[in-house]
Amino acid sequence: MKTYSISEVAKELNLTAYTLRYYDKEGLMPFVERTPSGKRIFTESDIGFLKVIQCLKLTGMPIKDIKNFIAWCSDGDSTLQQRYDMFVDRKATVVAQMEELKKTLEVIEHKTFYI
Amino acid sequence: MKTYSISEVAKELNLTAYTLRYYDKEGLMPFVERTPSGKRIFTESDIGFLKVIQCLKLTGMPIKDIKNFIAWCSDGDSTLQQRYDMFVDRKATVVAQMEELKKTLEVIEHKTFYI
DNA sequence: TTAATCCTTATAGTTAACTCTAGGTCAAGT
DNA sequence: ACTTGACCTAGAGTTAACTATAAGGATTAA
């Protein structure tokens, strides 16, 4: 199975190795294995998971909340509903942002505000 | 014309007077008038403008960038295109976030990732 | 006239999310 | 064997955006 180093993953996800180590320290990556000498080794599935984390971050979710989500994942099927609800909640947040933005666009398009 | 005090506006917009003064210091509210004694007096249109600022913040726009936008507004019609472009850009950002979120929702709905 | 609410400046504290440095380990190439 | 480069940790430093306090003063509603 192909694995990746921290700097390869950082490049792929467009962030730094510092940031990945910080995420690890914050409990966002309990799934990442190590070599006998202690180096992190990332699998394809780890990278997929990190992409989900990035998506959650994009929606404005704080790291502590993402950490909770990761912890739920470790708890298995019993937390499936919670996890699903959380995603639905996130979606609602972004949809609400979209609505606000649309309203604002309408305002500026109709030139109804100036200083 | 009806006007509002800083604390009334803070309550209406669901933030604190501290925050409003901070925004003022950062150049986000050059339009707000004062009484002869120096108190800020907000009009309905000021509040409308502050709501636009809140909307921009919701999309993740930093205060410095919002300040630039406000400065453009002061520059009048010559910056109309820039301002419109900025809003389109913001909209695109949020739409992209939506797309990411939809993808992620699909992933979790199909239960294709677990730790 | 007293209490509340506002103002200022200056300064300090807080939180989140990085971002970096120092000092050390380890594995591969020459 | 040795040097180079990528990795490690702990912990310090940074930035943004508040959030609050203090000290001192003005205004306004009851």
From TrEMBL, chains A, B:
Give yes or no: UniProt keyword Nucleotidyltransferase: no
Q: Which SMART domains match?
A: HTH_MERR
State the CDD domains in the record. HTH_YyaN
Task: Quote any Pfam family the record assigns.
Answer: MerR_1
Q: Which residues form the HTH merR-type domain?
A: 3-72
Report keywords, A-Z.
DNA-binding
Any one Gene Ontology molecular-function term assigned to this protein's record: DNA binding
- The answer to whether the entry has keyword Ion transport is no
| Full protein name | DNA-binding transcriptional MerR regulator
Q: Which organism is it from?
A: Ureibacillus chungkukjangi
